[in-house]
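Lab notebook, bench 4. The sequencing result for the construct came back, and we need a structural model before the next group meeting so we can plan mutations. Quick request posted to the team channel:

Model the 3D structure of this chain.
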Amino acid sequence: PEIEQPPPGFDDEDVYVPDPRDLAPERPTVAVAKGARAVLEDNEILGLAMVGVTVEGKGSRLRLARNRLDETGGVFVGGGARATLQDNEFTGSDRGVMVDGKGTRAVVGSNDFIDVDVPIMVDRRATATIEDNVITRPGVGIEILGKGTDPDVRANRILDAALSGIDLMAGPGAVVEGNDISGSRAAIRIHNEIRDESYDSVEAKAPTNPTIRGNTIRGNGRGIVVGTGAAPSIVGNTIESNDIAGIDVSDARSRPRIEDNELRANGEAIRVAEGARPKVSGNVIVERAPRAPGVPPAEIVVAGDGTGDVLTITAGVAEAAPGDHVLI
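Done. Here's the predicted structure in token form:
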């Protein structure tokens, strides 16, 4: 973005930070562009602009470390730039970090996000490593959008998301591994849809097929929600004490692979929409017990051949399709 011209003799390859009193609200507080390289450490950036920091353009580099950003609109990384954001604190903003566009790369690690509506968003074929962040009370904790957007999302802790801890939409093949998500309306939501010009949901052409592996998902409304035509691999997760369902395959066109997970004390272990065809094998499912009088047992998909067969377990230990067993 264009900002005020720097004073005479100022190298335009450096970062020029104008007086905040002269800064229009829609402009960034700090802008890095045109191949410039900047290091911002141990600063406070407080409520001065719609975007706190931008880094844009091929060759532009930013290291942002140990800063406090409060009500700033966060950090935008785009246009092929590269950024490392580490050990920062973001509070009270609509946005935290947005990584956007093919060729753009970012490492977002060990940051704290508190009361930020969307702390981390990766879109339009950008690449990111998102790890060891703590995200508290977001709307959507981490949002991954678009075909070819394949970040690694590892070892983050997400608490009390109003909507979802991690949202994967319209084609990403991300790896979501080793995260701890609790207290959210849904821990992980995977769906193959976009918004059209009228802001109505329409199915995207690209399949949504991320790998959801080794996460701990505990005490949410729903654990993993597989929506519109998505085909994720859900493998080796611990899914426990989620009120409605541990895994909710909510769309008939969904084709998830659900293998080697441990599901304990969920409202329903695996809920499957009519017509959906999950492939389910090797899971350990421990029902919430005992059920209240008159409440029928949950239906649990156990067939490993993708046909959507259903077995109702009423008592004891049942051996189902190869590898699956259910304890009540």
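Residues 173 and 210 are 4 Å apart (CA to CA).
Will bring this to the meeting.
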